[in-house]
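Narrative summary of target 7.
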Amino acid sequence: MMPLRPVGTNTIYRMPTGGPEIHDLPVVKGNGVCVSRWEPTPAELAILLAGGCVELAVMGEQPPVSLRAVPAAEG
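Modeled conformation, tokenized:
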């Protein structure tokens, strides 16, 4: 998945050098919540359409999270 830059981005979490799958993360941060947007690669989209699922990995301890699908126009 590739992180997108959501409308209203006001923070970018800079990732340390670590590997090809680690990217900076633009977020909209406010009221104790950070919202990021992600776009699947064509290969990932094919996996999802074939019944695959989304896996979430968090560095450090696991905070409460929420995942949902939104139209591209909202991003």
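DSSP finds one helix and five strands in the chain.
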